[in-house]
Write a structure and sequence with these properties.
The chain is mainly alpha-helical. The chain contains six helices and no strands. Helices cover 69% and strands 0% of the residues.
């Protein structure tokens, strides 16, 4: 008897379930920053920008972050240009890990949730969004991940 968990459907469903929560997280995080006011968000976070980063770069990054989060989140949810979304999302989360949260939760040896998000995004980058995506519908097997 064939293992149903080794099927192409299971593989693509797994990719969908990796994309959706991280995509929703990105959209919600971006929308919350936009609803609260981008200027207020920038003022509250500018102190977390590492001192090695020029102030203008940090300010520009923080101003762009809410919009980038919404766009990347939507791309992940829809599976549109999934590998690009996985790459850009991983870069964004890695920059947040470096600039703000660190790898471990404060006072513990437990990984910060951002490390797990970065790993999910790298999985989407490496595997693609799967067939249950706009990439799968628009580009077929050539661009979507296969098992």
């Amino acid at each position: 008897m064939k293992n149903p968990l080794k099927s192409e459907t299971a593989f693509n469903l797994g990719l969908l379930l990796a994309r959706l929560p991280i995509g929703i997280l990105f959209v919600v995080a971006g929308v919350m920053k936009l609803r609260g006011g981008v200027e207020g968000f920038v003022r509250s976070q500018i102190g977390n920008v590492p001192h090695q980063v020029p102030a203008a770069w940090g300010d520009g990054y923080l101003h762009a972050l809410p919009y980038v989060e919404v766009v990347i989140g939507a791309m992940l949810i829809l599976g549109l240009f999934g590998r690009v979304a996985g790459f850009v999302g991983a870069v964004v989360v890695t920059s947040i890990i470096i600039g703000s949260t660190g790898v471990f939760m404060p006072g513990t040896y437990m990984f910060h949730s951002n490390v797990i998000y970065a790993c999910l995004l790298v999985a989407v980058l490496l595997l693609g969004p799967g067939r249950m995506s706009l990439d799968g519908l628009m580009f077929g097997r050539g661009k979507a991940a296969q098992h």
